[in-house]
Records
---
Amino acid sequence: MPDLFTAPKNNKKLLKRPFGLFSTILEKPKRIHFHGQHSNEIILLLLRRHWVTNLSWLILGFLLIIAPPLVIPFFDISNLIFTAVPSGFFITVILFWYLGTSGFLILNFLFWYYNVGIITNERIIDVDFIHLLYNEITETTISKIEDITNKRAGFLGIFYDYGNVFLQTAGTEANIEFMAIPKPSLVVEIVSKLMEQTHR
Amino acid sequence: MNILTDLLKLSPLTIFKTFFLLIEFFYICFALVIFRQQKLMVQTIEGPEAPFFRLLTLVHFFASLVVFGLSFILLMF
């Protein structure tokens, strides 16, 4: 089978895997497969939201972790509740607090990790886990893509080079959106090349 | 059981304890949903880190059971 996509030499550094597990843009990942992948289908790019978009829940998680040691001494000094409430109750509340915090962090990490955009040599797939009870998988073949645009906005978007990529498809096919992905112009360039090669 | 007699008396602390245990019970359901959702996620995108995530969500689920059990013992007796 002919190689439809070969990364340009100058892109090699851009697509380098920085942290493996925490990578936001992966080129031809060998150990990752998706449900419904054809036998001769190769994943060219796997995209996740830029790590900067995780800062909000990471900071909140950090605050939730440090909150009990900061708040408990206040209650201890003022002795507001300790006299009325048994000590066992505080232990359970603190345990539950940290359990909830761990759940919050795990859930947010899983949502980030599994909300991916996949570009293969045959099609483009957008996997969205919106919340715990709702997920959406949109896919289209490269031949059906009519228009591709990228939007980069905001201070963080410009500073860290991430943005949204919109893929408009023909007819009634659902459009695909990759939100807050790193190097959107590079993704557009790669998809455009794939479109050219497919339409040839 | 003490808590049932206290509930009949409608002690504010007992009502609060019962309410807290109820929240913890719902959290067990939530942890189970996270575990199940993670399994569905792994089926969609199969990666090398999947066993680690499965273990993580399973530990979280069992931790919720342990916390509920411990709270039940500490609050009821």
---
Amino acid sequence: MNEPLYYEDADIGDEIDAIERTVSLEQVRTFLAIRGDVREPSRFTDIAHAKSEGLPYAIVPGALNSAMLAQLLTSWSPTVYLKKFEVSFRRPVPHNTELELKGVITAKHVMDDEPQCDG
Amino acid sequence: MATEEEITYDRSQLGVEHHIGTFPITRDMILDFAKSTSETNPLYCDEAAAAASEYGSLIAPPTLCNIFVDGLKRPDIKLTFGDVGLFASQAIENVSPIRPGDTLEAKTYLKEVYEKTGRSGKMVFVVWETRFTNQHGDTAVFVRDSFVRRNNPKK
């Protein structure tokens, strides 16, 4: 966890500290098991099943990718509270692939007396 | 049933709210979520540090509710297009913290259905909005999910 940052410390154009993640099959299985009702085989854990659905490989669940992308912001500073979060999924993410997550501050504003940054 | 630009689905579902589940939040659920996503923020994975924080206990990472909305118990809108479905996009708004011991109720409704044509051909997007409220009746999270349906290129 980085040092605390405050609204005055962030400027438009500032880069958010990049983080790296690699997702294993074991992590995918743990993630899927949280909810229960694990369906096997699935596109998330079985290559043959993924290929039967037209995918090139077993993929990391989109919700797991979202969680890691959110960490880019919540690990940036202990003072960051993630209020709104939007993500578009552009291509499937395979297991065991090094991912670099990075971002930049695109706007700053105060809404209802609450200082906010967009990134 | 309605047909609009070759998309056929049950349009009567548009805007109709459905209760899709009750989800008790546990300590283990939060810790497993943190472990499986390589979480490092102590608010979500270190009980002692979280207890000493302004929240007083572990809280759920901001996207925890995704595990409940990802393809779960939504009404069948009888969409006739496509044989492969994928997550396309998502928006989450966190309103109040979620803690171990909370019980969330989720209600969802079909917001829109529309089509686009991309490099891989025609795709149909189905957008749902879901609201999670806690046992006190307070809204915890809003989630908007978009799923894309397309034809399997291998067939």
